[in-house]
Write a structure and sequence with these properties.
The chain is α+β, with helices and mostly antiparallel strands. The protein has one domain. About 35% of the residues lie in helices and about 15% in strands. Strands 1-2 form a two-stranded antiparallel sheet. The protein has a two-stranded parallel ribbon with strand order 3-4.
Length: about 80
């Protein structure tokens, strides 16, 4: 977990980890604790996430998905062979 703060009392928390480490559960519980005293914003930068068990303020899957990325790579690979 990475935390940074400023003199104005704002805080940024970035939670990273491998698949299957219960990050979603930790984020959901930690958010409930933080919202007692702070406003929060939840984002997902995981284009391969099938579902997220909480509401997101920003979801990268609205811009692209892992399937789209893989199709683009496959298409590029075919072009290189030709």
């Amino acid at each position: 977990m990475y935390m940074s703060g400023s003199k104005k009392g704002k805080m940024n928390i970035l939670i990273l980890g491998l698949a299957g480490l219960s990050k979603s559960f930790m984020i959901q519980e930690f958010r409930q604790y933080l919202e007692m005293n702070y406003s929060t914003c939840r984002i997902s930068l995981d284009p391969s996430a099938v579902k997220v068990p909480y509401e997101l303020d920003f979801d990268i899957r609205k811009n692209f998905t892992l399937k789209q990325i893989m199709e683009e790579i496959e298409s590029m690979t075919r072009e290189w062979v030709l």
